[in-house]
Amino acid sequence: MNGHEADSAQRLMGLLFRAHPWHGVPIGDHAPDIVTAYIEIVPTDTVKYEVDKVTGFLKVDRPQRFSNFCPVYYGLIPQTFCGEQVAALFSKRANRHGMVGDGDPLDVCVLTEKTIPHSDILLTALPIGGLSMSDGGEADDKIIAVMKEDAVYGGFRDIADCPLTLLDRLQHYFLTYKHAPGTVQHKVEITSVYGREEALNVIRASHADYRAKFPELESRCPKGRL
Length: 226
Known about the structure:
Layout: H1 3-16, E1 35-41, E2 47-51, E3 58-63, E4 73-77, H2 84-94, E5 100-101, E6 106-111, E7 121-135, E8 138-139, E9 142-147, H3 164-176, E10 188-195, H4 196-213
Parallel strand pairs: 5-8, 6-9
Antiparallel strand pairs: 1-4, 1-7, 2-3, 4-6, 7-8, 7-9, 7-10
Helix pairs in contact: 2-4
């Protein structure tokens, strides 16, 4: 099969079958400045959903603890992986040694004034910063982004534009979202809040980690300036 035939076959498969939201959806032609976000959780969800890595379907991870609701639209950036390069950035930023990536796609929190009633959707997002978070000794960064052309948040360009009260709510959620009586707690820590340039570096590193982890999917990754 030549290259043209392979491209045609891939397009046909895309029409006949649902794309895996982690592997089959492009990160975005203008990444890392503009990225695709796959939304797993909306603020009204009382259950935490996450993508099943094998099938690509949303699965129930666990009920949300107590009255702890995610305050934003939360999901993943396709074609990313938190591996060695993401861990190295975290180690340098937080002055920590021996860190590893959590082995998951890069998480993203998307700000929008619109009400989106359900998850399992794609949207276009502009990264403005992130939370430098570790979970059980693993780098677990949370990119903060705004939905493209959003009437309220779409003009934000850096984390300094984000209201402190919203950042406080985000940090509180992630520091407490695994708490429950009688369970062994992961040590979740947010070492800093960073701005847009570091967020772009983390996205670049996670895409490089993805290519290293899944070399067989290299042909699906964009070859742009990322």
